[in-house]
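Repro:
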Amino acid sequence: MSAETTEKTFKLVIEYDGTNYHGWQRQKKDRTVQETIEKALAVMTREKVTVIGSGRTDAGVHALGQVAGFKTRSRLDARAFLNGLNSLLPGDVVVRTCDAMPDTFHARFDVTSKRYRYHILNRPIAPAIGRQFAWHIRKPLDMAAMSEAAIVFLGTHDFKAFEGTGSPRDHSTRTVTDSTLRSTGHGDLTYDIRANGFLRFMVRNIVGTLVEVGLGKIGKQDVGAILQSKDRSRAGATAPPQGLFLMDVAYE
């Protein structure tokens, strides 16, 4: 094969506002982030390029550090792809970095951990600005109880009780290395969780459960039993998507 047609591998770090997208993964009819980037790459390379993400994000979920990889025979370098993509993509999708990678790089299979952050706005009056980036809860939340409950998720557990229904995996055991609730003031709460992998709706189901602890609907002492039960019906309702952000993806 000549040097002109040698396939090259690139890694993208992508930021996007997921409000107007049906998630990351390409769909037959609905607009997605993956498809949007692939269309821009097709314009640049005149090839049909498949972009592989580190994982899916659901409809309405955002990202500050989604990672994706693609292969191409184009002569363009990383800087050209960075500048070109950002000139073609809509304003709610931005490529933060583009790097040439070894051919062995795989954006999904090489992941060692991911970090998600969930934003909650806890105050009586709903926001006009930023409402698409947080879950607004009017009733006061007991943050101390929520923080104690969040610690339960640290370590290696079977998270079947927090997996979305109808989405079975080979196994539902994951290792969580960070599970922290913080207050940034004026009713702004953030929940950070890092793990070696996530089940579908896992973060949103954990957040929904923590909110029910904060509202006094679930006792903080009961969260461990819910986790051990592997029973989805015992955990809290699924938190809405707009408060969730994929913050970063770690690789070896």
